[in-house]
């Protein structure tokens, strides 16, 4: 009912309660205060704790009026108990669900005094409001009745309860989901841990329905919390290579900077293929950190290679085969430059061919030039070279 027109009977009900507790202000002044309270309950940030919620509480107070000592004081406390509403602090939500009972009690004291309500009645109304904080009412019968009327929203049918919890979440939509889930879970667990949610005899009929709704919501909250945590872990596992390297460096601040940088891991083709260079002097701790960093870079490179189908660079293990300026081992460029795509099966032709490996061209087959046998065996045995057809 945010921004909607208030029922005509609502200001009149406020005026009757003011008169019942001994207020001496004129009718016009009382209506002005009623209009101010209605405007407060219609603030745009209210989706559940709005004017509709106030009307529901007033109706439940009428149901529980026989359980109270000062029913009109309870009604006026209902008007003021959530007049000050703030959703900016999630810690405040854990304690009072956004309602500022202390601020509301101060507002009630000021306005009721201006309406010439007796001081004793003003104090009684303010005590009911402040006792309502945390919904843990002690021996104050009137405060117990208002507390039960407020918590009656937990005992509605499941469809209305779903609307209730969705509207509460909208009031705190600026709060990160995981923080809200934890705060809401803490509130529900606190209610379910009580021996009784409702304290007045007439409100005990709402106990079972409220517990069923709360238990169902708690199960839903825990499942959603597990889903959010699993999603966050999955996001961390799929960080870009550059972010993964920076994440590792944050845990190993002593590691020397890698001059090749994360760009070589983003694009392995840009990696320096040069031979070994001088290695700076490092202590044992730095070398351990650099070894862990190198291992992480290799794993990230392997994951990227598996995704794009490229070759996987083997991890460097021997310092003697070459090192970078940061002391991280690399294999020599001549090993990496060996042709790997020309591994073909060579078959010999009937006439015979010699395989020749040419760098950059792969395997070539060169015909074998055969000698022509002489027709006269004696000439051949005498060492006379027979004439070939080409000569």
Radius of gyration: 42 Å
Q: How much beta, percentage-wise?
A: under 5%
Broad structural category:
mainly alpha
What is the helical fraction, as a range of percent?
A: 40-55%
**Strand order, largest beta sheet:** 1-2
C-alpha termini separation: 113 Å
- Indicate the low-confidence ranges by residue numbers: 255-282, 316-353
Q: Assign an overall shape.
A: elongated
Q: Would you tell me the overall average pLDDT?
A: 74
**Largest β-sheet summary:** 2 strands, antiparallel
Number of strands: 2
As an assembly, this protein is: single chain
**Treating each run of at least 4 consecutive H or I residues as one helix, how many helices?**
16
The helix/strand series, from N terminus to C terminus, equals HHHHHHHHHHHHHHHEEH
Offer a quick outline of the entry:
By secondary structure, this protein is mainly alpha-helical. The protein is about 50% helix and about 5% strand. It contains 16 helices and 2 strands.
Layout of strands and helices, then pairs:
Blueprint: H1 9-20, H2 27-41, H3 51-63, H4 71-80, H5 90-96, H6 101-114, H7 119-131, H8 141-151, H9 158-171, H10 177-192, H11 207-237, H12 241-251, H13 263-266, H14 284-308, H15 333-336, E1 353-358, E2 362-367, H16 377-381
Antiparallel strand pairs: 1-2
Helix pairs in contact: 1-2, 1-4, 3-4, 3-8, 4-7, 4-8, 5-10, 6-7, 10-11, 12-14
């Amino acid at each position: 009912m945010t921004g909607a027109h208030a029922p005509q009977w609502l200001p009149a009900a406020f005026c009757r309660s003011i008169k019942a507790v001994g207020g001496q202000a004129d009718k016009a002044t009382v209506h002005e205060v009623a209009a101010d309270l209605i405007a407060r309950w219609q603030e745009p940030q209210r989706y559940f704790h709005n004017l509709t919620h106030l009307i529901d509480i007033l109706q439940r107070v009428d149901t529980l009026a026989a359980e109270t000592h000062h029913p009109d004081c309870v009604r006026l406390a209902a008007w003021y108990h959530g007049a000050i509403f703030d959703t900016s602090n999630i810690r405040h939500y854990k304690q009072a669900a956004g309602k500022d009972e202390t601020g509301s009690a101060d507002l009630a004291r000021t306005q009721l005094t201006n309406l010439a309500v007796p001081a004793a009645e003003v104090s009684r109304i303010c005590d009911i409001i402040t006792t309502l904080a945390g919904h843990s009412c002690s021996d104050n019968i009137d405060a117990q009745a208002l507390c039960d009327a407020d918590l009656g929203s937990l005992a509605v049918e499941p469809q209305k309860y779903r609307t209730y919890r969705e509207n509460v979440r909208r009031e705190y939509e600026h709060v990160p989901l995981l923080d809200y889930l934890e705060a809401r879970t803490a509130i529900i667990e606190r209610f379910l841990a009580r021996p009784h949610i409702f304290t007045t005899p007439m409100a005990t009929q709402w106990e079972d329905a409220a517990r069923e709704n709360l238990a169902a919501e708690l199960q839903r909250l825990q499942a959603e919390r597990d889903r959010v945590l699993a999603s966050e872990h999955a996001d961390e596992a799929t960080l870009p290579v550059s972010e993964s390297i920076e994440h590792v460096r944050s845990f190993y601040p002593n590691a020397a900077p890698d001059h090749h940088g994360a760009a070589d891991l983003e694009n392995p083709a840009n990696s320096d293929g040069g031979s070994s260079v001088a290695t700076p002097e490092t202590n044992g701790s730095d070398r351990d950190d650099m070894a862990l960093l190198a291992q992480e870079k290799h794993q990230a490179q392997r994951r990227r290679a598996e995704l794009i189908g490229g070759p996987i660079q083997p991890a460097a293990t021997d310092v003697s085969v070459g090192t970078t300026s940061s002391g991280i081992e690399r294999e020599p460029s001549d090993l990496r430059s060996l042709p790997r795509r020309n591994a073909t099966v060579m078959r010999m032709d009937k006439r015979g061919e010699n395989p020749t490996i040419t760098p950059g061209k792969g395997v070539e087959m060169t015909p074998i030039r055969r000698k022509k046998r002489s027709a006269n065996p004696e000439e051949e045995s005498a060492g006379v070279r027979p004439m070939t057809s080409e000569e």
